[in-house]
Design brief:
Elements (H helix, E strand, L loop, with lengths): L7 E6 L4 E6 L6 E8 L7 E6 L2 E6 L5 H14 L11 E6 L10 E2 L2 H10 L7 H14 L5 E5 L9 H4 L5 H6 L9 H15 L7 E7 L3 E7 L2 E5 L20 H9 L5 H9 L3 H6 L4 H9 L3 H25 L4 E5 H6 L1 H7 L12 H5 L6 E2 L8 E4 L4 H18 L1
Parallel strand pairs: 1-6, 6-8, 9-12, 12-14
Antiparallel strand pairs: 1-2, 2-3, 3-4, 4-5, 7-8, 9-10, 10-11, 13-14
Helix pairs in contact: 1-3, 10-11
The chain binds adenosine-5'-diphosphate.
The site of adenosine-5'-diphosphate (ADP) has 13 residues, from helix 10 and helix 12.
Subunit structure: Homodimer.
Organism: Gordonia jinghuaiqii
Subcellular location: Cytoplasm
Amino acid sequence: MADTTGAVLVFNAGSSSLKYQLVQPDDGTVLAEGIAERIGDAGSSITHEQNGESVTETLVLDDHLAAVQRAEQFFADNGTDLASAGLTAVGHRVVHGGRSFHEPTLVTPHVISEIKRISTLAPLHNPANLVGILAAQDLLPDVPSVAVFDTAFFHGLPDAAATYAIDREVAVEHAIRRYGFHGTSHEYVSGRVAEFLGRDPADLNQIVLHLGNGASASAIAGGHPIDTSMGMTPLEGLVMGTRSGDIDPGLVLHLNRIADLSVDEIDTLLNKRAGLKGLCGENDFRTITELMDSGDAAARRAFDVYIHRLRRYLGAYTFALGRLDAITFTAGVGENSARVRSEALAGLEGFGIRVDPGRNEVRDKAARRISADDSAVEVLVVPTNEELAIARQSAAVVASLSAR
Ligand code: ADP
């Protein structure tokens, strides 16, 4: 059995899912990983991978604690007693840090109550993250828990990029600003870009496109984000799998007043029944591309709307940066869809952006360049690894505590 000493157990708890990974923060070795899905539902399941084997089990998981307990059992069956495995930390992804948190933070009772308070800003996400934290603390009371916030990287956004043009008093009273999300991924990937190019991050102006089921773009100058597409919530910005991204806020008022939809109904409409799914009934790009190729007009429109929005952000961020050195695609769609990448950057040779079609088609799990040799702007595909980033940040928090 692989040595678990010093490893970090990373939890990413969603409203009905729990992803976990046991990872060595130094070299990124993944010792085990798993995912519990449809928690609280009749058909819950859990998949655990360890020692080269993958086991999937369908069972009733009433809540996140049950999922954590089942995961612990899987570890034990594979010869890993988590409580005595020498873990450095349990690292938790927490979606919203509000105004309180902009660094990875050791979880204390005060931190728990603060995350609870911030839940009003992220009612779909923070409560689930908290349940994950409490379940892990219940299971491993002697291992420090660290919260890593999805908003943290964007804490220092320039005021002009972070501010909504609404009544200032209302904004201040209700903590309304643009927070940005997927920060762990944008920070990790932009750092990897600098490494890959052998450049000092301080000298690099880049755009990172995190295109997964959720999607966001960021403009990063000298290692610091100067703009990002998600806002007070992860609903703003790019067209996503099931979220609308940017809309006219007047649309919400209209749906409420004229279509008689309640706020909760509009919430569901924009978060779960919009984006690609709302436009063509599908949110997986593999299916959408197949449908498009078979002549499906709704799938074609969904694709076109997605690309149009992406290009709008690319243009805006290029101007915001003033000089652009690199564009990087990451996450499920960004890493896998050559078609999205080529259409997003088609016809931009006049701006020094030239994708090499052959390089773009290569499938590889490693970071790679897909721009042509004569492209002034580097175009890259860099796999994100939020778990590793969370593990490293968590280990660093614990190390700084013991150094005191
Ligand atoms: P999230 O973490 O936001 O749930 P991911 O980053 O895992 O999402 O991305 C999931 C999405 O990636 C899928 O919905 C699908 O659209 C896309 N995807 C995954 N594999 C491929 C592929 N081979 N080709 C095209 N798209 C893909």
